[in-house]
């Protein structure tokens, strides 16, 4: 079982209890549920998605004691285009409360970074104040992806569809706009930045291409932007001091 398979299995098990604790009707009664989401928009410059992430399976101590409020202020002062907030607890140390807190302090779009495998989580994302949701192709069947993608749009959320390998492109909906390429190998957890270059020619031309994982310097951002990537999801570098 890969790390992703283990995380997804645990997520499905946890969802059983979550649904019993908070019903779909209760989610729809939350104040943020009827809030108009902020649509992410590119402007011809690198679209930087800064991330709040305490730890991960590949790095158990990114910044365990980071202050979320301080980081959100810092990211906005740096001029970030959007903020990604981890809400997965067991492996990343995040929570829904983190995203709710960020929402009250943030004027840019917020991406909910989690392992979404159920329509309940899309409604939950809306209820906690997310503007964007991550849909990971490796964790979803093609029809699952389509259903979750369509529900996201229906609720006014922007789906960021993420692939790790070229063969996962067959799962992405035709009307995908935000398409992420994650350089991490889900079996070894190692990153391979050459993947950004290898996969790029196969990406649909109409998509906004997002480079994810292992980006540590402004030079890398500039090079990938020149190649055709418009957006960059950067976590560890900003959690540990900023781009080189």
Automatic annotation (TrEMBL):
The keyword Amino-acid biosynthesis applies. CDD domains: IGPS. This is indole-3-glycerol-phosphate synthase. It is an enzyme of class 4 (lyase). It comes from Luteibaculum oceani. It comes from the Bacteria. Keywords: Amino-acid biosynthesis, Aromatic amino acid biosynthesis, Decarboxylase, Lyase, Tryptophan biosynthesis. The keyword Amino-acid biosynthesis applies. GO terms for biological process: L-tryptophan biosynthetic process. Gene3D superfamilies: Aldolase class I (3.20.20.70). Pathway: Amino-acid biosynthesis; L-tryptophan biosynthesis; L-tryptophan from chorismate: step 4/5. GO terms for molecular function: indole-3-glycerol-phosphate synthase activity; phosphoribosylanthranilate isomerase activity. It catalyses: 1-(2-carboxyphenylamino)-1-deoxy-D-ribulose 5-phosphate + H(+) = (1S,2R)-1-C-(indol-3-yl)glycerol 3-phosphate + CO2 + H2O. Its EC number is 4.1.1.48. Residues 4-240 form the Indole-3-glycerol phosphate synthase domain. Pfam families: IGPS.
